[in-house]
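Do me a favour: review this protein, sequence plus structure tokens, and tell me how the chain folds. Record follows.
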Amino acid sequence: MPKLRAACALSLGLVLAGCASTDSKPTLTAPASLAVLHETVHRQQDDLLSAGLGHAGLLTAAPPAFADPAAPTAAEVRRRALWNSWRGIADLMPGGGFGQLYGTLQPVPGREYATLARLPDARQPHRVVVQVPDNFDADKRCVVVAPSSGSRGVYGAVAVAGPWALPRGCALAYTDKGAGSDYFDLDAQIGIRADGSTAALQAANDFAFLPDAPVNASGVAVKHAHSQDNPESDWGRHVRQAADIALQALNQALPEAPAFTHANTRVIAVGISNGGGAVLRAAEQGQGWLDGVVAGEPNIYSNGAGSRALYDYTTEAAELMPCALLAVDGLPGSPLSAAGRAGGAVRCASLAGAGSINGADVAAQARDALARLQAAGWTEPALRAGALSVDFDLWRAVAVTYASAYGRYGVGEHPCGYRFSATQADFSPRAATAAERAAWLSDGSGIPPGAGVNIVDARMALPDATAPGLACLRQLWTGNDAAAQRVQAGIAQTRSAPPPPGLPVMLVHGNADGLIPFAFTSAPYAAAARAAGAEVSLWQIDHVQHFDGFLALPDYAARYLPLLPYVYRALDAVDARLDGKAALPADAHIRSTPRGPGQPLQATNLALPQ
């Protein structure tokens, strides 16, 4: 069948090759060719942190509008992308502590350098943006590399790294690490260009994502799912490449200064969630270019005892957790919504009918489902917080995209028959509109549903509509057919190695994380890394779940605390360690205190290590 082939001008990519070095650090892999960097200036009524929106602008209920909804300017797309990135990651609500107890949104003027970078063996590029603040500290050369969390666009880590790096004069490099929201409209043959505008296939050759798809394919192609690169296996290389591009940007921004190299410029990598996993994968590549790492709630699959792959526990939770959370006698205090409880009862009956759980009634079935999750290592705090992922159908959304990515499946090839499309009210596919396409880059999270793109499930069948598809997704982990082996091989490529001795690494993770549980990720990684002689410190924090952004929900704000204050404090600690001012902090179990209903966050609630 005829195909449309991904294409991107070679000049847009940064290709890495080996070369010798006489610097004081060990021999490095260095750029053989330079990226083409597009420079923009962000000063008056615009800045690097929030595009001029400030705290008040980020709190507005509606996103910044496009003057022409079908054809926004690059500045409009950037502003709206920053608005979405902040609100998706940080708790900016009054009483939440941002701007008072931690973080800042004071304007930081400067310049940005953007490019599409490509790993030598990758089908698709990844977006890289480097921010050079006007207050760049030439006496303490510093670059912070921040890969996006989740599958977000290139600004997805602005709340994680920006408030720490930019005010102190560090350059900041972002990467979408091969995912992002550069979707492609298969019906109209329209994609998103390097500058953020949309264009027809025949009109441009600089698409950020151009799928290899049958010419008659319909719906929407999603980069994380359809790149055929298994981007998670290359997260560490994406981070390294972004660091190299940051040095190039500094040399372009400050040509009068002595050349910026890894030998004379401090590089700290920081990320949360998938971004946390990415910086830990970068750490294993050795010293010489990376000086310190902070990983918050990292999605990391290690050789440590108890480590589990994301796909394993995600598909397990997608099937069992809606039912298990109904076991109020075994799991009191779950914040599952009324709609979630109704769906959970249907799931219990569905699982019991399939012989997956036991029990004569819903209550007994829920207890059995809960016991199975607990036997698999799920803790009660993680299960309670997992209610949010049940209510928002996050488990299924993650599993659908990741199954495709791990198997390197292209458009129309998903082993469980899923695809993505704009949809009607009844979830039947329809063509996307020009206004929807124009907002994908700024509004999309990189994993449908969202931004007008939904999951199309050909296996849906009542009474438990999503159960047949979930059973197929789970079988890709538990089974042994060709599709399962293909997905499992991709997952194996994501397993991490320990960092080298002498590279300071701090892990920060809430033990109430219900999406990427502490027991499956940070705890086994830290143990394995230390056994290999690595310099690792682990902070385990009570009452912290996965999503700071969801603390805007009153019930979650009363129950849980934000993660970002601990990430910023860990960055302080790594910086002090690199300055020779203090050793890396010892491991800590931080006994925080929820603020309670209607109460503002106080420093005493956080109990931040000093």
The first strand starts at residue 3 and ends at 4.
